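User:
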Amino acid sequence: MPRETMSPRERWLATLNREKPDRVPMDYWATQEATRQLLEFLGCDFETMTQRLHIDKPLALEPRYAGPPLTGFRDYWGIQYRNVDYGSGLYAEAITHPLAQFASVEEIEANYTWPTVDWFDFSALPALARENAHRPIQGGGSEPFLIYKNLRGDEQAFLDLLMAPEIVHYCLDKMFGFAYDMTLRLFETVPGAVTYSYVAEDLGGQDALMYAPDQIREFLLPRMKRMIDLVRQHGSFAFHHTDGAVRDILPDLIGIGIQVLNPIQWRCPGMEREGLKRDFGDRLIFHGAVDNQQTLPFGSAGDVRQEVMDNLRILGAGGGYILGPCHNIQAVTPPENVIALYETGYHEGWQ
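Assistant: Predicted structure:
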């Protein structure tokens, strides 16, 4: 086995810059329940697990909330949540929608207080970034329509795109503006430390886009481009997460400057790995792609090993691939399969 010559940060940066790393970097996404199960199986803590499995886990750099007191299970948008048990894990689901009762921009302006960057304390971040200088660092970014759906309620949010576009534009301006200010403050607080920013929005369902392309182009892409421009101007990479079948909108996303595409649900129509690599591999770094709907939870360890080797062969050809699950590993996944993922990536991923 070759000897590692790079730190996790150096390995990520080499891949992102289309240079040759010592081996393919590997990331870890999982639910709390799946992680707890894996740690119990291995008999170790999280840090030891990442070392044992050679995972190049980024540090998420986030400021501390220091704004108006939050009561109950409520966030700073005013959305209240409750944990819902889906059998294999708990997920926080919104149970109140603070903007649902308003029928105009004027009503929202008169009755709702938008969060501000001044509600957050960034003072601890420089020391934290220095202590983790060997790791890739994720910080800043945006995912406003996800929040918009919680503020208005899912059904109303989708209706708004057709029936109340002025409310959508107003709210997204507020939310993207907040995300921009937060990201800019982060860059100013830890200059040069952030490897990538998570400029996300779930655009795809299992079989097709969740929105009409014209809606994506009207409401999201111009605002996402402003975020991406900020990220790239500060020397960081624009990491775009979108689930599902999104091939039809990929040229538009590349056009506004995304550089990393996650999570690569390759079983969805149009998301076949060979086609993505052939058509977009010179413009995108691929992240994820180990299927967590079928292979990881229900396949054998041998199936996982084969899929990892296929991903390395297809998506990793000539570089440009970060290995990981396509979204969070679920608690129904056998720990043996998780171990197979990373052991295979480590043994087969040398460049």
